[in-house]
Amino acid sequence: MERVCIRVYFDFASTLCYVAHRVLSSVAKEVEDLGVELEWRPIDLTMAAPWDRGDSFSEEIRTAVRSTALALGLDVEMPDPWLDSRPASHVALAAPSPAAEASWRTAVFDSIFERRFTVLTPELVELARELVGPDAVPRPGQRFPRVEQSTREALALGVTGVPTLLLDNWLVGGVYDGESMVSILEQLAQQYRDLGLSAVN
């Protein structure tokens, strides 16, 4: 079966992206059996959203996000305020392989949403050195052109929120239960193959 690459745009600061990461991780075998490869691509959502790094959210928004997560089996709170995800995204975009990116993504999400850290911990900095090399470790005050470029590309494609799945010019936003996510990926991949398109974005 020809493999199909489906991109997942996400932001490390987004609670719903963490939920999507957990849901998709739980159905990784089913996704692999579909002949689908997920390419996780981080962006800086603040370049498109009406809030900025360091902004807080109302209890109404926080409750809505918590309820969505609980409906999908995860008891998780939004970090407050909105975190600067660019350093973590900078490392992810420099990852030399999908396996390295997956290790980094899992470690960062675990640090933020399970261990409740808000900055790159010494353990994460050491992991970045191991996975990517010392040049990829973020430095204080630096800019993040790779993250900016990834975000601009996503916005040009029509991405307005995260998580968003992208295949060719089809965009599917939001996070759903594992069965629904597998069904969405299956439909996208089958449509892609039926049209005889290339297997990679």
Description:
The protein has 201 residues and is of the alpha+beta class. It has a single domain, classed as 3-Layer(aba) Sandwich (Glutaredoxin). Helix content is 48%, strand content 11%. It is built from 8 helices and 4 strands; from the N terminus they run E-H-H-E-H-H-H-H-H-E-E-H. The protein has a 4-stranded mixed beta sheet with strand order 2-1-3-4. A hairpin with a 2-residue loop joins strand 3 and strand 4. Helix 4 (86-94) runs antiparallel to helix 5 (98-114) and helix 5 packs antiparallel against helix 6 (122-131). The longest helix has 17 residues, at 98-114.
What is the chain-wise order of helices and strands?
EHHEHHHHHEEH
Distance between the termini: 17 Å
Level-2 CATH architecture: 3-Layer(aba) Sandwich
> How many separate structural domains?
1
Spatially, the strands of the biggest sheet line up as: 2-1-3-4
Supply Rg: 17 Å
Overall geometry comes to: globular
- Give the number of helices: 8
Low-confidence parts lasting 5 or more residues at pLDDT below 50? none
Helix content: 40-55%
The computed structural class is: alpha+beta
CATH superfamily label: Glutaredoxin
Average of the residue pLDDT scores: 94
Kindly report the CATH topology: Glutaredoxin
Number of strands: 4
CATH classification class: Alpha Beta
User: Major beta sheet, specifics?
Assistant: 4 strands, mixed
**Beta-strand residue fraction:** 5-15%
